[in-house]
Design brief:
Among the domains are: 49-57 and 216-299, Efflux pump adaptor protein, beta barrel domain (Elongation Factor Tu (Ef-tu), domain 3, Beta Barrel), CATH 2.40.30.170; 60-92 and 176-213, RNA polymerase II/Efflux pump adaptor protein, barrel-sandwich hybrid domain (OB fold (Dihydrolipoamide Acetyltransferase, E2P), Beta Barrel), CATH 2.40.50.100; 97-172, Helix Hairpins, CATH 1.10.287. It contains 4 helices and 23 strands. It has helices spanning 2-27, 97-129, 135-164, 226-229, and strands at 37-39, 41-57, 60-63, 69-74, 81-82, 87-92, 166-169, 172-175, 177-179, 184-189, 196-197, 210-213, 218-225, 237-242, 250-257, 262-264, 267-278, 289-306, 311-313, 316-322, 328-338, 342-347, 354-356. Strands 2-13-17-15-14-18 form a 6-stranded antiparallel beta barrel. Strand 7 (166-169) and strand 8 form a beta hairpin. Helix 2 runs antiparallel to helix 3 (135-164). The protein is rod-shaped, with a radius of gyration of 40 Å.
Length: 364
């Protein structure tokens, strides 16, 4: 008997609670407060396009060698700043025995040819003095001797380069020291002492020895979705958010928009470049990941309400307005720019009016 009494009281409490909750939901809040409302205020609306990518130097250079060999000595480390012409590393020639032997044999052959040309020239000079040959024949012999002399010198210089990596040509010292092509920072050293070096030529790319960049001229390279690319224009303002520096504000402007799309993760995107204009005192590093908000359009000092307050019926925007007397009124409004959270109100509402928050949707 006592057990039945307890159950009856429990059911009564549940009915009372359910009735109270239903009353609150019907009124949009607590029984005394009435429906939840949002005030129409003035503010700013920004329409943005999102780009995802990385901070990179505008110009990054891969330093390569034009002679083969092995790295003899490194003169710089990653992070060093160097001026154009500064020594980066030295390559020691490492010819095969066959290459060195062939080069020395070429020297011997060229010297033999030079000696033949010298004897021939002396004979032609004697014949010319006796007027047995023409001046043109003598000049031809002189040119042949000069050509043989140059070829012999080239053969000797080649052997010197293969053996020592150094040679002097026309008052200029040629050495196997790789020098900086620009003023900038060493981003990365790809080789160490003793590593083999494949030279750059018309038939091969060659070994990348060092990468360099001028870090004062950084850009953002990334991609934007095809839905937004048609709205972008060069010169648009961009807000750069660096992942590693969440509290740092960097601004820029759109510098280039690709004419050709590419596919990434089954999505069509377009590459873009944003030139950084305001960096401040922050140190940006090559490779930082970043997101960029590109300002497509903006509205300043306009009436704004949350977009969730609007009901669209037959392409007509409607809201429920709470009147001063406590009654509600359905009203058609004209909307403008939206940022997906807030929306501009062009007509139908006044500043300070209260718009009723719609009840939450029921989950079916």
């Amino acid at each position: 008997m006592k057990m039945r009494t307890k159950v009856g009281i429990g059911v009564g409490v549940l009915v009372l609670v359910a009735g109270t909750v239903a009353t609150v939901l019907l009124r949009g809040g607590s029984g005394d407060e009435g429906p939840t409302t949002i005030e129409v205020v003035r503010g700013s609306i920004f329409q943005k396009a999102l780009a995802i990518g990385n901070i990179e130097p505008d110009v990054e250079i891969s330093v390569k060698s034009q002679i083969s060999g092995v790295v003899r000595e490194m003169f710089v480390e990653a992070g060093d700043f160097v001026s154009a012409g500064a020594r980066l590393l030295e390559v020691k020639p490492n010819p095969t025995p066959i290459e060195l032997a062939e080069s020395k044999r070429q020297v011997e052959l060229r010297e033999i040819e030079l000696e033949i040309m010298r004897s021939d020239l002396q004979r032609k000079q004697e014949l010319r003095e006796r007027d047995f040959i023409t001046q043109e024949e003598l000049e031809l012999s002189e040119r042949q001797y000069e050509r043989a002399s140059v070829q012999a010198q080239m053969a000797r210089e080649r052997v010197a380069l293969l053996e020592t990596g150094r040679v002097r040509i026309a008052d200029r010292d040629i050495e196997a020291v790789i020098r900086a092509p620009i003023d900038g920072f060493v981003l990365e050293t790809r080789v160490e002492s003793g590593d083999p070096v494949v030279p750059l030529s018309a038939f091969q790319e060659g070994t990348v020895l060092i990468t360099m960049a001028e870090m004062s001229n950084l850009i953002f390279r990334g991609t934007v979705d095809e839905i937004d690319v048609g709205k972008l224009r060069e010169g648009m303002l961009a807000e750069v958010k660096v992942g590693a520096l969440p509290d740092v504000g960097v601004t820029g402007e759109v510098d280039a928009i690709s004419l050709k799309a590419r596919n990434e993760d089954n999505a069509t995107v377009f590459p873009i470049e944003v030139r950084l204009t305001e960096v401040g005192d922050v140190v940006l590093r090559a490779g930082y990941s970043a997101n960029v908000d590109i300002i497509i359009d903006r509205r300043e000092d306009v009436l704004v309400i949350p977009e969730r307050l609007i009901r669209f019926e037959d392409e007509i925007a409607r809201v429920t307005v709470l009147l001063p007397g406590g009654e509600t009124e359905e009203r058609e409004i004209e909307t403008g720019l939206s940022d997906a959270l807030s929306i501009e109100v062009l007509s139908g509402l006044e500043e300070g009016e209260l718009v009723v928050e719609p009840p939450p949707r029921e989950i079916e």
